[in-house]
Design a protein that fits this description.
The protein has 329 residues and is α+β, with helices and mostly antiparallel strands. The protein has two domains: 85 residues, Phosphorylase Kinase, domain 1 (2-Layer Sandwich); 180 residues, Orthogonal Bundle (Transferase(Phosphotransferase), domain 1). It is 41% helix and 15% strand. Helix 6 packs antiparallel against helix 8, helix 6 crosses helix 12 and helix 8 packs antiparallel against helix 10. The longest helix is centred in the C-terminal third of the chain and has 26 residues. The protein starts with 13 loop residues before the first helix and ends with a helix. The structure holds adenosine-5'-triphosphate (ATP). The site of adenosine-5'-triphosphate has 19 residues, from strand 1, strand 2, strand 3 and strand 6. Keywords: ATP-binding, Kinase, Nucleotide-binding, Serine/threonine-protein kinase, Transferase. InterPro entries: Aur-like, Kinase-like_dom_sf, Prot_kinase_dom, Protein_kinase_ATP_BS, Ser/Thr_kinase_AS.
């Protein structure tokens, strides 16, 4: 049976939906689908509220929000619920930033972008029901990795996934503008989810001038207060890839002025352990004129990225086999 192009599948579509699900997962997934399909919210407008969710463990805390594991009462679907107090947002003068984040993130649907499933508010709070990324911030993993850095296979895979997410953003006229390991989450399947669209901008073709983003990741055109476009994200991807491989961003300095100077002079040092392929990629992204930076599609097809990603897939297979053997013994 082929699935007709209706927006929401119904019970009749279940056999086709389930055809690729492994035998051992058939029963629980079928039950989950049936529960979701019988929900009042399925396929039609629904006013979600905090009453629809049971709140569970605390997952983390940000400047303006606390994040909890939460379970939708009817389907038992798990989400990460970010709860923000309106009063705190007002005091911090970030209401517009949060609304922009909600507006942009709810439109973006990509495997490497954290999904905002729904959102709602009550008198005092705003709730964001987010997809779960159970391994948390990538930053934490970078800090706990040997020598505070990732090996080349891992760095290449992550660089590919971020390039893929950014490419999707740019095709939808969105610039992220605040890329850094703190704004990227990791899932239990070693996949990245780009989060934190608080600084991102919807850009129907015009160049922008707002100074935002983190100092170490600022591109030269933003340091100099010039207008900029979506190629700022390629610069940030270059910094991110360097930080993955080296453990710290390339223009780090003890003072802000020191960092600004290094960015302007493009003063970058490549440690000897970096391969020529990775250096070529980073140098292609960290070019001063935005239009000279290699494209995100070229990042995804870069020979270093492709070879190293294949190695990462093997590493993960070996890790998986190791886990299976441990369970058997
Ligand atoms: N979708 C999610 N899945 C799992 N854990 C999450 C998720 N979202 C957030 N967290 C955890 O909660 C913490 C706080 O998230 P939050 O988005 O509020 O922080 P933040 O991005 O640092 O915010 P801010 O920019 O306000 O400081 C994160 O560092 C992460 O550990």
């Amino acid at each position: 049976m082929t699935l007709s192009r209706t927006k929401h599948a119904n019970r009749n579509h279940l056999p086709a939906l389930m055809s690729k699900v492994p035998e051992e997962h058939q029963e629980p997934i079928k039950n989950m689908c049936l529960k979701m399909m019988s929900h009042d919210a399925y396929g039609q407008p629904y006013d979600w509220s905090a009453r629809d969710f049971e709140m569970g463990a605390h997952l983390g805390r940000g400047k303006f929000g606390r994040v909890y594991l939460a379970r939708e009462r009817h389907s038992h679907y798990l989400v990460a619920m970010k709860v923000m107090f309106k009063e705190e947002l007002r005091k911090g003068n970030v209401q517009r930033q949060v609304l922009r984040e909600i507006e942009i993130q709810s439109r973006l649907k990509h495997p490497n972008i954290l999904r905002l499933l729904t959102w709602f508010h009550d008198e005092s709070r705003i709730y964001l029901a987010l997809e779960i990324a159970s391994e948390g911030e990538l930053f934490k993993h970078l800090r706990t990795a040997p020598n505070h850095r990732f090996d080349e296979p891992r760095s290449a895979k992550y660089t590919y996934q971020v390039a893929n997410a950014l490419n999707y953003c740019h095709l939808n006229n969105v610039i992220h503008r605040d890329l850094k390991p703190e704004n990227i989450l990791l899932t239990s399947t070693d996949d990245l989810k780009l989060a934190d669209f608080g600084w991102s901008a919807h850009t129907p073709n015009n160049k922008r001038r707002t100074l935002c983003g983190t100092l170490d990741y600022l591109p030269p055109e933003m340091v100099d207060g010039k207008s900029y476009d979506d190629t700022v994200d390629q610069w940030c991807l270059g910094i991110l890839c360097y930080e993955f491989l080296v453990g710290n961003p390339p223009f780090e300095s003890t003072t802000s002025d020191g960092t600004y100077d290094k960015i302007r002079r493009l003063e970058i040092r490549y440690p000897s352990h970096l391969s020529s392929g990775s250096k070529e990629l980073i140098a292609g992204l960290l070019r001063k004129p935005g239009e000279g930076r290699i494209t995100l599609v070229d990042v995804m097809t870069h020979p270093w990225v492709k070879t190293q990603m294949a190695k990462r897939a093997l590493q993960l297979q070996q890790l998986e086999r190791g886990k299976e053997n441990k369970v058997k013994n």
